[in-house]
Every structure is written in C-alpha cells, then in structure tokens.
Amino acid sequence: xxxxxxxxxxxxxxxxxxxxxxxxxxxxxxxxxxxxxxxxxxxxxxxxxxxxxxxxxxxxxxxxxxxxxxxxxxxxxxxxxxxxxxxxxxxxxxxxxxxxxxxxxxxxxxxxxxxxxxxxxxxxxxxxxxxxxxxxxxxxxxxxxxxxxxxxxxxxxxxxxxxxxxxxxxxxxxxxxxxxxxxxxxxxxxxxxxxxxxxxxxxxxxxxxxxxxxxxxxxxxxxxxxxxxxxxxxxxxxxxxxxxxxxxxxxxxxxxxxxxxxxxxxxxxxxxxxxxxxxxxxxxxxxxxxxxxxxxxxxxxxxxxxxxxxxxxxxxxxxxxxxxxxxxxxxxxxxxxxxxxxxxxxxxxxxxxxxxxxxxxxxxxxxxxxxxxxxxxxxxxxxxxxxxxxxxxxxxxxxxxxxxxxxxxxxxxxxxxxxxxxxxxx
Length: 426
What we know:
globular
C-alpha cells in the first residue's frame, strides 16, 4: 500500500462562507484607510455597494452571492475576474447564473496530497525576493544598497557593502531548501541574485528589451503616444522609476498567481528611515511585516483596483495573511532577538499603514500586497543598516546544505520557514 494518501480536505485556511458582517470587519480593520472609503463603499443588511467618485452605485454584491463571488475571484485569473465584475455591475445573479458561475470555479487549493513523512506535501509556496541590483551602478538607480565605512577612524579599511537584492535572493534559496525538504513545491520569481523577473539584469533589459516592450505596449494602445515618446527618451534611472519598477512588479505577481500558491512570501530587508542617506550605521533594529489593504478613495478610481479590492473584501485572504504575517513577525523576533515594531517606530507605519491588531503586522497598499492572489506576508525582518547587522550580513561563513550564507540570513530564512509551517499545519 502506498504511503501517500490522497486526502481531500476543505482546509480552514481556504474555506469561505463569508457574511456581510465579516466583510464589514475586513473593511474597517484592513481596507478603509483612515475613513477615506466611507463615501465609496456602502453596507446594508442585503448588499455591499461600491460607488464611483460622484456617489453613484456602480457595483453590488448581495448577501447570498458573497461566498460564490469570493470563490470565483480567488480561483480565476485577473482577466476573468475583471470581465465578470464588469458584466455583473449592480445586477443580482439568478439561480441559473449562480450555477453557471459555480461550474467555472476550479479550486486548486483545497485538494492536497499528504504524507506523514512530508508534512507540506501538496502545498505550493511562491517566494518573491525583493529588488534586483547587485552592482553599484544599478544599485544607485534602484537605491537599494548600503556602501559606507563604519568606523573611519579605527577601521578605515572596513567597508560596509550590502545589496538588498543579494540578501533577499540568498534568503529565498534557504527558505526554498527548508520547505522542499518537507514536501512543498516552491517557486522563486527570480532565477539569479542579479536578475529581475524577466531573467536578466536591468542594464540588459534596457539594452535588449526596452524598445521592443515600449513599442508593443504602444501598438496595443496600453501606452498613450505621448507617454511613449517621454519614456523612450528617458535616462535609465528615470525609466526605472517611471516605468520599469512597476512593470517588473506586475510581472512578479503574474508569475506568482500563475503558480496558484497556497501561501506567498515577499522577502525584504529594511533600513532605518531616519538614517538616510545611509552612510553610517544605526542603533535601531525592528522586525515588521505588511499585508494588503489601506486603500484610499482615489485607488478605487481605477477599475483594476476595484477588482483587487473586492477580492480582498469578500474572501478571507486578509484574515489569513494577518495570521501568516503574525507568525512571521513572532518567529523573526524570537529567532533574531530583536524587538517588534509598533506604529510609532517609523513614520510610514503611522502615516501610510493600518495596524491590524497583531503585533508588528500592518496593512499597506503596496503593489504586491494588492496584486498577489493568496494569503501573503511582505516581510521586513530586520534593519540591515543596524550597527551589528550590517557586519553580520556581509559574512559568508556558513554553509547550509551547499548554500553559502551567514548566521543572520539563515535565522531570517528559518523564521519564514517556521511561519509557513505553523500557518499551514495549524
């Protein structure tokens, strides 16, 4: 008899049966940034309405439809989601329409093959290691590096040189190894430490792909002619911030969503915002994590954002993301021996985020937090410019199963692994 048993389990992590009351909780706790959506979303006992900027109702989901619409949004491509919502508008679905919609839902996340010797067998985990630059030239464009002499008087030759892209990729490889050993299938959005999601570095993309991509977008009428003319003449630095950064992030989310992950990890390393321009070390060090939410009124002026908003409102992805992120923060704090950030420890936590109620976990409307269709954690495990971390992260004195790393990066990876394991197995 095969040791591998096929168990069809309707996991608590991925079930639905949502109510208007639950959606209202999500709206208040995660999505409505400081009341800015009060005039854009209405709740009553029968339905939830999304209004345009002039107060006119443009979409409705009725109480009896919430579960069905949520399952459709979670289990279909963005193109299908957008088409469905556009056609639905304010109409209430008939019984026949509900049956037809239900038949189009293929849930790829509730059926998993489990093996007592491989506890994560059947689970898919997507990992995005943040950023791309590992040379000073590209890092100066992306602004994601540290390069300074820590002690110019006593140790003038000891230079701190860190590229966040290399740190996140090394962490991703470690997490992948740990998860795969437990049977999970893991996807990483970048194939090398110096690559973006298009399998090349930024300089190569500019030299070989820039004109072709911009021409294609102009031909498809995605890019207006005036913007095309502006972008095609831009410096590499300006093009990165005006176009490529979001273009790459959108591709990363597409890669992850095509994988149909049960869980997504977005790996980053933080810095002390008050330490800009990061030419010296800081004494501060905190761990924190972000999940989706914190929408503002103008966000809902774009149809694509309404689609993402409704998926997050109607499904339980935000609730599950909070649980996953809380595990990540707790494991990071314990393993790394650093404090958990409160909303008063950085201005962006107070000004741009909503505190979820779980220590160190904040709703923030970052691109990937909005675009990825699964429970997720966007981790900021530690401050890489901390006076102790910056030196420890530069080391390459640990070999973990043929991956060269250092003790701090290994502990960060262990924390992500423990968070995923605890989340999926509880």
